[in-house]
Design brief:
By secondary structure, this protein is an all-alpha fold. It has five helices and no strands.
Length: 126
């Protein structure tokens, strides 16, 4: 017997550019430019997080997390923001390394998903 698909569940919205549209006063070209900057910044952020984590430089990770949270808010990446807050909480509580490993990997994968979606939605090739 086949199990039914969960088609009743709405898809997860990876980002919401309402605030960016307001900031750009509807100028689609400017919105696209800001999306490209976001993609570059968040990609660099992930590389820095992974580097700091491989070096076990938790204070640097905390600093990077703190610096990046507002950017995620502006671009309506609520799921990413929640993951980042969870990572920050794990760092503050000095949780088990395995839990932090999983969360950082999950954040990296989700970030890549957001970036891929934005690139696809805005026809960005790079």
């Amino acid at each position: 017997m086949k199990s039914p698909q969960n088609s009743d569940l709405p898809p997860i919205q990876l980002y919401d550019l309402q605030l960016i549209h307001k900031m750009c006063r509807g100028n689609e070209e400017k919105v696209a430019e800001m999306v490209e900057v976001f993609i570059d910044q968040v990609s660099q952020f992930i590389q820095e997080i992974m580097s700091a984590y491989s070096e076990k430089d938790f204070s640097r990770i905390k600093s990077l997390v703190h610096k990046t949270k507002p950017t995620l808010t502006y671009f309506g990446t609520i799921t990413l923001e929640k993951e980042l807050l969870y990572i920050e909480d794990l760092l503050i509580k000095e949780s088990q390394p395995s839990e932090l490993d999983l969360k950082i990997l999950s954040f990296k994968n989700l970030t890549n998903e957001v970036v891929d979606k934005m690139k696809n939605d805005f026809n960005i090739i790079n």
